[in-house]
Amino acid sequence: MNRFLVTGGAGFIGSNLCRALVAEGCFVRVVDNLITGRRRNLEGLWDRIDFVEADMGDPDVAHAAMRDIDVVLHQGAVPSVPRSVDNPAETHAHCVDATFQLLLAARDRQVRRFVYAASSSAYGDSETLPKVETMAPNPRSPYAVAKLTGEYYAQVFAEVFGLETISLRYFNVFGPYQDPTSQYAAAIPAFVTAILQDRPPTVYGDGEQSRDFTYVDNVVRANLLAARAERTHGQVINIACGEKVTVNAIIRLINEIVGKDVAPTYAPARPGDVKHSLADITLAREAIGYEPVVDFREGLIQAIDWYRQNLL
Ligand SMILES: NC(=O)c1ccc[n+]([C@@H]2O[C@H](COP(=O)([O-])OP(=O)(O)OC[C@H]3O[C@@H](n4cnc5c(N)ncnc54)[C@H](O)[C@@H]3O)[C@@H](O)[C@H]2O)c1
Questions:
Q1: Whole-angstrom distance, CA of residue 69 vs CA of residue 33
Q2: pLDDT level of residue 312 (50, 70, 90 thresholds)
Q3: Please, what sign has the CA dihedral across residues 30, 31, 35, 36?
Q4: Rounded distance between C-alpha atoms, residue 69 and residue 283, angstroms
Q5: Has 152 been annotated as catalytic?
Q6: Domains plus CATH for the chain?
Q7: Rounded Cα distance, 54 and 62, in Å
């Protein structure tokens, strides 16, 4: 099982996966249309990967990409709640339609395993914490619906067509190569770069919302475990650290790590955002032997180092 297709491989998580796979000597093909990904995320890997710049949702592209592939790590998506509120049709096309075409192509090419990057946004705003996979989903944004639909398709392709799928519900991933510049930038890259540049970070809401922030190495590890687990049959598994941190606490911690005291500015909460999120990772431990390898504080130190060296 050494021939991998990484969709969205020029993105944040995809490029981290490519680095890990190349380091292990695996064959890696990437399909990316660069809608949110960047070529520079793949720096140093160009002569060691097969890069296809194309829309993975095009049936011909999807079919060709699966040639001689053992495992698909499907990361490609337009992954932002606010962007999906601004442009739900775009989210639907790049998440739902594209995932469906890739599953069809994987089935037809008899790929051995299809690992899907699912999202904790599927849980929505239920009061109960931690979130366990047995809870009823409650998507609150077009993005959450789109990611959940991909999970359902992955499950059905396992049940109906025998394709070995597995969905990893990532919780707020952060780390090197995550874009801080987009207007839809995720919280940690936006906060870290603002504080490093002595600009006040913008917090939406009162900052007391919390998340189970997950350093990207944990997600890479989970994908490798899922790719190599004995047999998969459409399971849905939380991937996180199992720790919850508030947005205000992150701002304090970044300031402490970099030795500054930059205060945030507060803006109204955004539609579609959930208040609290925390994962139960028992199933990940049982099903694929997952254990977080880097905790939040250590991950934040590493991410800050990377932004210092690469983006300032
Ligand atoms: N970052 C997180 O916190 C998080 C949390 C939960 C789930 N996820 C999921 O993880 C995956 C990766 O997210 P990320 O944070 O690395 O985002 P990203 O935007 O950095 O990467 C997504 C990549 O997919 C590519 N892409 C999008 N549509 C495409 C298409 N039609 N054809 C080819 N390429 C296409 C983009 O150009 C980009 O390189 C996504 O599926 C996302 O939904 C991410």
A1: 19
A2: low
A3: negative
A4: 28
A5: no
A6: 3-173+215-241+278-293 (3.40.50.720)
A7: 9
